[in-house]
Structures are given as structure tokens and as C-alpha cells.
Amino acid sequence: MEGRKLEIGYIKKGPWSGEEDEALLEHINNYGLRDWSSIRFKGLLDRTGKSCRLRWVNKLRPNLKTGCKFSAEEERVVIELQAEFGNKWAKIATYLQGRTDNDVKNFWSSRRKRLERKFRKPPPSKPHKNNKGKTPITTQIQFEEVPPCNPNKVEENLSYPTLYMGNMEVFEMVNLPDLIKPNYPHLESDHLGAVKVEATPLQTVPSVESSGYNFPLLPEPVMDFPLFPECHDFIPEPLDPCFSYEFDQQK
DNA sequence: AAGACGTTCAACCGCCATTAG
DNA sequence: CCTAATGGCGGTTGAACGTCT
Q1: A180 lies in a domain?
Q2: For residues A89 and A210, which has the higher predicted lDDT (pLDDT)?
Q3: Is the CB of A112 under 7 A from strand B?
Q4: Which CDD domains does the record match to this protein (predicted)?
């Protein structure tokens, strides 16, 4: 292990080496997916049991879609399930073959940041790059948070009536058989540890509760980043002067 | 070409639940 | 029942990489 002998009490951190991965895989081959902490006590690795488990789950586990971007369908699933379950990334990940909770978490986090940046009030010192000499659009818009994805437009054959109560948006969720009962037989009884997924379809999910956002009613900006094509997250508010202003700018 | 800025992703941290003694 | 150890999970961070200006 990098030329140094294992020391009692020493705990290595940081990126994993190939040797460490091999040692971890060997331990898993011999003892299975348990006793993570014993790896260190046996002197095989200078890593904590937690770290070993995490490495396995996120990188070494077979059939992982590492380095593969989320497909449009996967995005849709995450958005739907996040609305239903909240930030239960591990649970959501069980619906996505080859994805880990970390993957889902990272995906959601970057999506959120992207949307926040899109609607955040920029610092006054920096003029809008594509709007020279004019008042930046976003400085006029007092967005506090990011609007949600509107599932209405995801698929033609799905119907998600979206209700608004004050500034709280309420999704009425409709059964998605492929989501509620994912057909991943390997999750049932494989050697990686049985994972049973059970989900009860919700009739009504207040998005504020589930996501932590206070989604306002917002105009629909023109998206200049790839989400997924069918998904128009924002509903235009015709009365909002900021929306019409921006709309004019795009023409 | 280079610096600024944005994005992605691996890994750590802290909290909580469960389990074993 | 109590306590310590362990595992699981969500939140966060920081490095690496990509894109823009």
C-alpha cells in the first residue's frame, strides 16, 4: 500500500488506489458484503469500514453506469420520485438500474444549482453578459427559489394535473406502473444483499414538503441548458412583466 | 492562450438506526 | 435495559475537468 506498512490507528483518506480496490474486492470475495470494519482490523486496508462500503457501493459494485450521463428517462424518474419521496436518494436509486444514491444525489444537486443560478439575482457588479447596457433581466425578478419540473409535458399519455395553493404547488401523482413496481429481479434476492422496494403511490404530494423548496409561480424562461426535451419546468405567467420583457428579448 | 467560471463526481462528515454484548 | 460498535444515508466539500470570455 504505497510502500508503507499498515499502522494501527492510522486511517487513510482520499482517492482510492488500484491496489486498495483489489484488496477490497478480495475481501468481499472471501467474506461477502459484511464486516466492513474487519477489513481494517485484518490489516488489509487502512480504510474505515464506512469508507470501504462506500467505495464498493459507489464504484466497485458490478453493473454500475459509471461515467454515463443520466438519460432523459432517468431524469424523468428522478424528478418524479423526488417529488414523491423527497430526498430519499437511496430509495430513488433502487429504481434506477446501475445508479447509486450518490449518483442521484449528485444529479439532483447539480440540477438544483443550475436552476438556482438561472433564477438567482446576480451580483450588481457584474452586468449580464448578453444584455449589455440594459438592465439585467434577472435583477428585476425576485425569484427566491426554483420552479419545479412540470410533469404535464413529459409524456403525452400521462396526466398530472398540477394544482396551486398560494405559493405552494401540489402535484397530483398518477400511478406509474413502471416506477412503482420496477422490474429489477436482481434487487430481490441476489448475493449483494436483498433489496426489496416497496412504494405506495401517493395521491397528492405537496412539493414544498417533499423538496424543501418554496416554489413560486414563475414565468417560463427560455432554457439555455439541456434538461430533457419534453420537460418544460416552468409555466409562463402572462401577467408578469418580467416574463414578457425577457420574451421580447428572445425574439 | 489564459484566467474565470461552471459542472461533475468521488469521498468525507455527521447524524441516526440497528445490533451485539 | 444500557452502551458501544457498526452500518446506512443525506448533506457537503473540494479537486479535476470542461467551457466560456
Answers
A1: yes
A2: A89
A3: no
A4: SANT
| Kind plus residue range of the DSSP H or E element containing A171 | strand A168-172
Residue A174 to residue A63: CA distance in whole angstroms: 30
Q: Is pLDDT above 60 for A37?
A: yes
Where in the sequence is the domain holding A223, given as residue range(s)? 72-250
3-state DSSP assignment of residue A7: coil
Residue A169 is placed in which grid cell?
A: 404547488
Higher local confidence (pLDDT), A97 or A206: A97
Q: Are residues A127 and A24 in the same domain?
A: no
Whether residue A113 is predicted with pLDDT greater than 90 in this model: the reply is no
Å between CA of A193 and C1' of B17: 18
Nucleotides, chain B, CB distance < 7 Å: 5-14
Q: What 3-state class would DSSP assign to A41?
A: helix
Amino acid A157 CA to nucleotide B16 C1' distance, rounded Å: 41
Separation CA A1–CA A149 (nearest Å) = 47
